[in-house]
């Protein structure tokens, strides 16, 4: 598997090593202040002589001091309130960087991101992005269309993290994509794609970003062809070699999209890079997501989550005799018989909430 910032060695999915990407969250600190007012009272002259020890003079002095004491107390309270307000504003300002932008939905704010808060906030603030994408940058496909609100309610959801340059993403995709497309069409499964670009550094022309942008444009404007196009860019005769990249032109990428049914008018606009800034922010956030990390706390591609839990691809492939049989392992994990794939009404036994079944 390919890990962010690592492009070396891919003999087996479980043998790749690379530095994990760790995100640090901003610390929130605040200081408080304590203010005091010292008052000095002078004898009040009344125009008449006063005897210092006189019992009659005591009530008069006391009656005059009470208003001054009240004023002093009021000043202390006002100053204390001002100091508190300054402290509260300071603390709130420091904490704002950790909260999702005000444009996020109430549900998003209450649950929060599973990755770095600053990266999540930056993703929300991108102005040009596909409206069908969810708040974490995922593009969900189902029999009802594209968008998280169009999920088939009782179907499990596969969430897939991939980079167009990642060789193991291609290997895994070429095994399971045919089954995924049939299950999507039959309403048996929802698939959320997370297209990443950390392997731009392995190409001379930011290949991953260009492909991700094209996929996002198709998701937005021609959603019916997104699964087929996503599979096509990982085809063995198209996906470039990570270790010896040869440039793939915008024209060739457009032709690939047209080959699976994407309108030429749309494909020819891929080169405009409409969603490139959004793609960058999706990647920056996705690689920090704690829920997408494996048992060792590492993030790599490809990663597949089933109903929100990371599925161990290496163990699944080994259980069926090798990567070439990963599709069988996936069906077993979903609780769906191979003869039922593509048949409406035949639903995976784990439903929309269940854990992946143990593959034996």
CA(first)-CA(last) distance: 22 Å
Poorly predicted runs: 6-66, 83-112
Shape type: globular
Strand content: 5-15%
Which class of secondary structure composition applies to the elements? alpha+beta
Helix content: 25-40%
Per DSSP, the total helix count is 11
Give, in order, the helices and strands: HHHEEEHEHHHHHEEHH
Please summarize the sheet with the most strands.
Answer: 6 strands, mixed
Number of strands: 6
Integer-rounded radius of gyration = 31 Å
The average pLDDT is 79
Strand order of the largest sheet: 2-1-4-3-5-6
Give your account of this protein's structure.
This protein has helices spanning 57-95, 106-111, 117-124, 167-185, 207-221, 226-232, 250-259, 264-267, 276-286, 313-319, 326-334, and strands spanning 139-142, 145-146, 157-162, 190-195, 303-306, 309-311. The protein has a 6-stranded mixed beta sheet with strand order 2-1-4-3-5-6, sandwiched between helices. It starts with 56 loop residues before the first helix and ends in a 26-residue tail after the last helix. By secondary structure, the chain is an alpha+beta fold. Strand 3 (157-162), helix 4 (167-185) and strand 4 (190-195) form a beta-alpha-beta unit. Helix 3 (117-124) runs antiparallel to helix 9 (276-286). Helices cover 38% and strands 7% of the residues. It is built from 11 helices and 6 strands.
């Amino acid at each position: 598997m390919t890990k962010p910032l690592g492009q070396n060695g891919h003999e087996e999915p479980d043998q790749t090593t690379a530095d994990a990407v760790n995100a640090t969250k901003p610390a929130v600190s605040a200081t408080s202040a304590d203010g005091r007012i010292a008052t000095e009272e002078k004898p009040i002259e009344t125009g008449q002589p006063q005897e210092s020890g006189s019992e009659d003079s005591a009530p008069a002095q006391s009656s005059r001091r009470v208003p001054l004491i009240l004023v002093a107390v009021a000043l202390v309270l006002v100053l204390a309130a001002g100091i508190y307000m300054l402290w509260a504003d300071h603390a709130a300002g420091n904490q704002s960087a950790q909260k999702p932008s005000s444009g996020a939905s109430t549900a998003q704010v209450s649950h929060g991101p599973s990755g770095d808060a600053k990266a999540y906030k930056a993703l929300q603030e991108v102005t040009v992005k596909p409206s069908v994408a969810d708040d974490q940058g995922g593009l969900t496909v189902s029999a009802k269309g594209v968008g998280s609100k169009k999920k088939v309610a009782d179907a499990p959801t596969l969430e897939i993290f991939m980079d167009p340059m990642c060789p193991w993403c291609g290997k895994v995709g070429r095994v399971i994509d045919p089954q995924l497309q049939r299950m999507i069409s039959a309403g048996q499964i929802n698939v959320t794609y997370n297209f990443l670009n950390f392997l731009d550094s392995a190409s001379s022309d930011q290949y991953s970003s260009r492909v991700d942008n094209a996929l996002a444009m198709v998701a937005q404007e021609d959603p019916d062809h997104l699964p087929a196009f996503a599979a096509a860019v990982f085809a063995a005769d198209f996906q470039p070699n990570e270790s010896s990249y040869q440039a793939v032109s915008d024209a060739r990428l457009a032709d690939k999209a047209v080959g699976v049914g994407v309108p030429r008018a749309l494909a020819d606009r891929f080169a405009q890079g409409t969603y490139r800034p959004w793609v960058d922010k999706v990647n920056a956030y996705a690689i920090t997501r704690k829920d997408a990390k494996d048992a060792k706390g590492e993030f790599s591609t490809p990663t597949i989550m089933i109903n929100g839990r990371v599925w161990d691809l290496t163990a699944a492939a080994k259980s069926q005799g090798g990567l070439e049989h990963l599709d069988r392992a996936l069906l077993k994990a979903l609780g769906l018989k191979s003869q039922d794939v593509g048949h409406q009404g035949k639903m995976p036994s784990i439903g929309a909430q269940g854990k992946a079944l143990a593959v034996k």
